[in-house]
Write a structure and sequence with these properties.
This protein has strands at 3-7, 10-13, 18-25, 33-39, 46-52, 59-60, 68-73, 78-83, 92-99, 114-115, 119-124. With 125 residues, it is mostly beta strands. The strands form 2 sheets. Strands 2, 4, 5, 6, 9, 10 and 11 form a 7-stranded mixed beta sheet that branches. The chain has a 4-stranded antiparallel beta sheet with strand order 1-3-8-7, with no helix packed on it.
């Protein structure tokens, strides 16, 4: 089985930074892809970033490109989302996801096999 545990959320002022962590446990196939989704009240769930286990092919939603960076620590089986220059519109619950493959973020596909419980990120003006 796969477990995904997010941490690192919190409240920051606009322009600040946060780093989210996703500690993953489980087989390598099911965690081949790790990624982040977010959902704000009244808005559709949005894919934020994805990355493969070897660090290959990191991808980002246009809304966060240039501000966020996804990375992985293979030894710890942990994914990170470094969020810089945060904006109020980044406020959302952020979920870690895993699966055998990373879907194109523009496809809108969210059928990943495993989801974490989420961590709240709040950005104030």
């Amino acid at each position: 089985q796969v477990q995904l545990v997010e941490s690192g959320g919190g409240s920051v002022q606009a322009g600040g930074s946060l780093r989210l962590s996703c500690a993953a446990s489980g087989d390598s196939v099911s965690t081949n892809c790790l990624g982040w989704f977010r959902q704000a009240p009244g808005k559709e769930r949005e894919g934020v970033a994805t990355i493969y286990s070897n660090g290959y092919f990191p991808r980002y939603a246009d809304s966060v490109k240039g501000r966020f960076a996804i990375s992985r620590n293979s030894a710890k089986n942990t994914a990170y989302l470094q969020m810089n220059n945060l904006k109020p519109e980044d406020t959302a619950i952020y979920y870690c996801v895993s699966g055998d493959r990373c879907w194109d973020l523009e496809s809108g596909r969210d059928d990943y096999a495993y989801w974490g419980q989420g961590t709240q990120v709040t950005v104030s003006s």
